[in-house]
TrEMBL record:
Protein name in the entry: DUF1919 domain-containing protein
Alphabetical UniProt keywords: Plasmid
Superkingdom of origin organism: Bacteria
Pfam families registered for this protein in UniProt: DUF1919
Organism: Arsenophonus nasoniae (son-killer infecting Nasonia vitripennis)
Length: 204
């Protein structure tokens, strides 16, 4: 019942763009860079009218691959994505970079994926050089993994700004049909965790 009321309230607020307006007031002067395992972050950049200071946008990476990559993030960012990294897939471009499978879900082809990934990874490198790793926000969810150790591994990572969403039955973030939300849906229902959301940006 609470979940139903929350989603209905959120639908009304979203239609009026109330939360988007509050976000803009609170966050528009902050420089942001978000490393996310799916599309959770894309609407934040669009709402704040900021460039994508991250290559981790418009794509998804499995929870295990993402968590295993994060401790070596800065080395990973210095790897140039090339055509040779792509594997055959009819639906959307997929690349395997240093053992990490990157699903370029919202990209037309490998050429576009390469161009935008390499341009944005350099932006993130520059952001880290100028602002420090403590200014980067890390987000992960286990929509594609049911290993309880994933959250433990993520929580153990020594990042200052991080948030993890667990696939738990009857959680307030779950869709009304009981399914776990994708990245965009998870962002839209941020009213359910808004104080944690805003806390990620504190001090930027």
């Amino acid at each position: 019942m609470i979940n139903f009321i929350l989603h209905k309230t959120n639908k009304i607020l979203s239609k009026l763009k109330v939360i988007d307006k509050i976000d803009f007031i609170l966050l528009n002067k902050k420089k942001i860079a978000i490393v996310s395992n799916n599309c959770w972050n894309i609407r934040i950049y669009k709402n704040l009218k900021q460039p994508y200071n991250t290559p981790f946008v418009g794509l998804f990476i499995s929870t295990p691959d993402f968590i295993n990559m994060l401790p070596n993030l800065q080395n990973f960012l210095h790897l140039e994505l090339k055509q040779s990294h792509f594997i055959k897939n009819d639906n959307y471009p997929i690349a395997i970079l240093d053992g990490v499978k990157i699903n370029f879900l919202h990209y037309k082809n490998s050429s576009s994926s390469i161009e935008k990934w390499n341009k944005r990874r350099l932006r993130l490198i520059n952001f880290i050089n100028e602002n420090g790793l403590d200014s980067v926000i890390f987000k992960c969810c286990d929509s594609d993994s049911f290993d309880n150790n994933d959250q433990y591994k993520f929580d153990k990572l020594k990042f200052k700004r991080k948030i993890y969403f667990k696939n738990i039955k009857n959680s307030m973030i779950m869709n009304l049909d009981g399914t776990f939300p994708d990245g965009i849906q998870l962002y839209k229902i941020r009213i359910a965790y808004y104080f944690k959301f805003i806390k990620l940006f504190r001090g930027l």
